[in-house]
Amino acid sequence: MSSETVLYMVIPCYNEQEVLPDSAEKLRNKISDLITRKKISKNSKICFVNDGSRDRTWAIIRELCQRDLVYSGICLAHNEGHQNAVLAGLMTVQPYCDAAISMDADLQDDIDAIDAMIDKYDEGCNIVYGVRDNRETDTFFKRVTAEGFYRFMKMMGADVIFNHADFRLMDKQALAAFGDYQEVNLFLRGIVPMIGLKHDCVYYKRKERLAGESKYPLKKMFAFAWQGITSLSSKPIKFIVDLGLGISVISGLVLIWSLFRHFTGQTIAGWTSLIISLWLLGGLILLAVGIIGEYVGKIYLEVKRRPRYLVQEFIDANTKEEK
What we know:
The structure is a single chain. By secondary structure, this protein is of the alpha/beta class. The protein folds into two domains: about 5-215 and about 310-320, Spore Coat Polysaccharide Biosynthesis Protein SpsA, Chain A (Alpha-Beta Complex), CATH 3.90.550; about 235-305. About 50% of the residues lie in helices and about 15% in strands. It contains ten helices and nine strands. A nine-stranded mixed sheet has the order 7-5-6-4-1-2-3-8-9, sandwiched between helices. Helix 1 links the parallel strand 1 and strand 2 (about 45-50). The radius of gyration is 25 Å and the shape is elongated.
């Protein structure tokens, strides 16, 4: 990047009043340093996206924007979820920047890795992924489940970057291509790699959260994983077909065995085997219907073409006005 390159840092925020002042100061110091070293333009910004917070998050963002023009703010009309908040931020700032970096407000992603991202951008990369080089700060359970999730996603056919979340740089060309992906069921970690273009990774150590609580407890993590699998891959439905074929083959073998025992006079009433078979097949049928229903539900949401977010207010000095 050069002193002419406008960089926006897009930071989704949901109930981040505890961490926001400290994070804002650290990000300001980072962007000031980059401007001083002529790595980016003086018109570069830190853009906070308020995702329907119920605390003072938006009030703090407004105060920051009034105090320093390096800050900008987007207030969504409703809580749309982390993925939609990132999307809203990137699409809103796209007309005003040459590149944008998305990262979480807790700054567990190392902001010093931004320097390496910019270097990769200067080398011609359209997308630069921030990738954790280890999971030493995670509990054993979280480490095993998280790494298992990435491997499972690969097995399901999703093109995801191992140990990459939503810390990434995208240039103007990548953002324009990203805007063409119109699905409502968002899983950005799988959608962005679909764009292709020239890309690379930078590696960093993830830090402890500065303050507040994680917005992704175990229940939400599993829901997020399921969203990713069903949004990017149809393999679960193919698995149902394979399972059905397998059960049909087994049923055929059991039929042959039963006929053999019948004609040889060895027929014995088997209550236990009958009950087990009924429960097994009933459970498999419900599982199959549930998985198919999940896909039908996603189709339902897609065809309705509801807006994925609504910007209630946008504060940015580069736009020359407050919207």
